[in-house]
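Cont'd.
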Amino acid sequence: MRSSMATSIFKLVDMYLSSADTTSSIEKKGSHICQFCRKLFPSKWKLTQHIRVHTGEKPFECKICGAKFSQKGTLRGHLFTVHETTHSLQFM
Ligand SMILES: [Zn+2]
Ligand SMILES: [Zn+2]
């Protein structure tokens, strides 16, 4: 009796099933994937910045009106359009 034949077929089926699984094939080493929307990012800080979209974390605060922003660029844009200033303010 040869039982090794059956096990090799099982291995083939297992290989086929795992290759058909899209989520495991997407996750390549070196790329940073968003745990929330499975989007890929080339660098870790870009992913960190993107994750704030999901977590709602807003570390940048407007010193004038207290509005909070997730991105530094958005705060700068706010300062320019709302308060008509481009530089971050020094008064506390
Ligand atoms: Zn995401
Ligand atoms: Zn403001």
